[in-house]
């Protein structure tokens, strides 16, 4: 007996791009992961190829796997993983907001139109600008959640996962440096609310050839862990 696949059409709005014309990896990972139902468990999303915006794509859910395709090209796939993700340490919102002054992207940004960390207008992008936290190995930003990302039932998982994404890259990047997200494992513990103020924290956890590894977390004002992620980035070929 085989399990029937549930297929839907997904089009990524241009607003949610990372590099110009390509879907932001965190937003895309959250969208594909959400197909599996959430419930607080961790989901691993592997991004196999850049996903174009404003293009009809096929999102398929069969058993406990979700995949996204453009024609015959596999773009992303998600699977549940049975683990509790570790999180970098809590940084108070005031300290996280203060760290933004050191954001390397102010001095050189490879993807200034990125929905998450790009230099977009308030309310349009998420404006998560992580900078180094003095005396630690962390980067952090104060995330003020715009009401414009909320839906009727609150802030969707795709937005929460997007906020967890770029901070893991900026834990590595110098001004002007870049990479593309290759894999993101995410675990959402609590809801995020529009208008809320949260700390987004990240740290680099290693490097192997062209691969960069990092962890991130979102905390509310009293230090309660809201969500955590583990990322693998792929740097450009030399």
TrEMBL record:
InterPro entries attached to this UniProt entry: HotDog_dom_sf
SUPFAM superfamilies, sorted: Thioesterase/thiol ester dehydrase-isomerase
Domain of life where this protein originates: Bacteria
Protein name: Thioesterase family protein
Organism: Nonomuraea longicatena
């Amino acid at each position: 007996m085989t399990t029937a696949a549930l297929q839907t059409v997904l089009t990524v709005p241009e607003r949610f791009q990372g590099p110009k014309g390509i879907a932001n990896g965190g937003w895309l990972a959250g969208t594909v992961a959400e197909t599996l139902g959430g419930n607080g468990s961790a989901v691993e999303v592997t991004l196999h190829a850049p996903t174009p915006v404003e293009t009809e794509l096929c999102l398929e859910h069969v058993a406990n796997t979700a995949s996204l395709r453009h024609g015959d090209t596999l773009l992303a796939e998600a699977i549940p993983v049975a683990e509790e993700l570790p999180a970098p340490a809590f940084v108070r919102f005031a300290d996280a907001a203060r760290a933004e002054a050191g954001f390397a992207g102010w001095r050189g940004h490879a993807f200034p139109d990125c929905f998450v960390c790009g230099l977009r207008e308030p309310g349009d992008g998420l404006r998560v600008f992580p900078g180094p936290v003095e005396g630690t190995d962390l980067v952090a930003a104060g995330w003020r959640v715009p009401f414009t990302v909320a839906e009727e039932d609150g802030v969707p998982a795709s937005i929460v996962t997007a906020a967890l994404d770029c901070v893991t890259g900026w834990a590595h990047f110098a001004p002007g440096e870049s990479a593309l997200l290759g894999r993101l494992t995410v675990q959402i513990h609590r809801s995020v609310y529009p208008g809320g103020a949260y700390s987004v924290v990240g740290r680099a956890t290693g490097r192997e050839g062209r691969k960069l590894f990092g962890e991130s977390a979102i905390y509310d004002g009293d230090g309660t862990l809201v969500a955590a992620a583990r990322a693998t980035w792929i740097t450009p070929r030399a």
